[in-house]
Amino acid sequence: MTKDETVYARFEKSLNQCKVIFYDAYGKAISTQTVEYGGKAEAPEAPEKAADAQHTYIFKGWDADTENITADTAFHPVYESRDIGGTSGNSGSAKTYTVTFMDGNTVIDVQKVEAGKDASVPQNPSRPGEAWGKWIFTGWKGRYKNVAADETVYACFEKKLNTYKAVFYDAYGNIISTQTVEHGGKAETPKAPEKAADAQHTYIFKKWNADTGNITADIAFHPVYESRDKDGSGNGSENTKTYTVTFMDGNTVLDVQKVEAGKDASAPKNPSRPGEAWGKWIFTGWKGRYKN
Question: Helices marked H in 137-192 — which ranges?
């Protein structure tokens, strides 16, 4: 080495593959696709539904959004039914309204409800887990009882964040602080632990080995020290010049090494990152100089 260096871990994304199936009105698969996380499914030609004795059926759309696919998804057609005899001039026909149940932009159910009657709420919807935690269904927002107009009713959710264990250690591996931190939260750093001098060196606390902010997994914090020769750094030509090589993953310090001039640092164990909702991170190497 010829100067202090910072070396960064490099990663690339590997996106999850989601299976998408489109069904016709009778439960037969008409299209099967593999879509990358966040991608769009290609909707097939609208499937027809045969008329019965009372109604004809008009295709209105699919029961879920075909964009931003984030999990295996089954698509079923949604139809509007119309009386074969028509509605105009038929005084014996009760007025009906359309009640649509939604989760965001996804259609969950479409019902035709007679004026003054109630729609039937569908089964409580669920959402896939996220890297930060999970969604908790809390109820429906909108009118679906005593219906007097077309209505759109939305599913309501609240976030429940993951919690993580953050443990701080001293220079000798003893636990000095254990905390529970919500996803994205900050761990509270304890008082900097001291490390006793040995025969050749004294030790000065510099930092913790990882960022204490934006916690996204269980994490262990270890102190990082700078060593200093007891006889001082200005001891003539007998002292070899050393440089600091710091290995990082983003804002997290993985390792700090003191390396003599002209020698190589030792790359630490390949780091890993926790899986994400969209897939996983693949370590591809180091960016920066750590060899002479």
Answer: none
